[in-house]
Amino acid sequence: MGKYEELHELVGSFEADFRKFYEKQNKAAGTRVRKHMGELKKYAQQVRTEVQEMKQKMKEEGK
């Protein structure tokens, strides 16, 4: 479950900026939130690619 823990830590690291933007309406934090969401998008795409490769490998191995 290493990928899940990585995802959980990644999202958790965004919390402070989310709170600053949504609760305190800090504009600079909003810029950081957008940056964080871009990082999350990249991570999600990496996981999607990895899952597809693993599924293909399982298919080839007859699992």
Characterization of this structure:
It is built from 3 helices and no strands. It is an all-alpha fold. The longest helix has 35 residues, at 27-61.
Gyration radius (Cα, Å) is: 16 Å
The separation of the N and C termini measures 20 Å
pLDDT < 50 stretches: none
Roughly what percent helix? over 70%
For this structure, the quaternary state is single chain
Q: How many strands in all? A: 0
**Major sheet summary line:** none
The general outline is elongated
| Rounded average pLDDT | 95
Integer tally of domains: 1
Q: What proportion of the residues form beta strands (DSSP E)?
A: under 5%
Order of helices and strands: HHH
Helix-strand category: mainly alpha
Output the number of helix runs.
3
Task: List descriptors.
mainly alpha, 63 residues
Topology:
Elements: H1 2-12, H2 15-24, H3 27-61
What's this model, at a glance?
This protein is mainly alpha-helical.
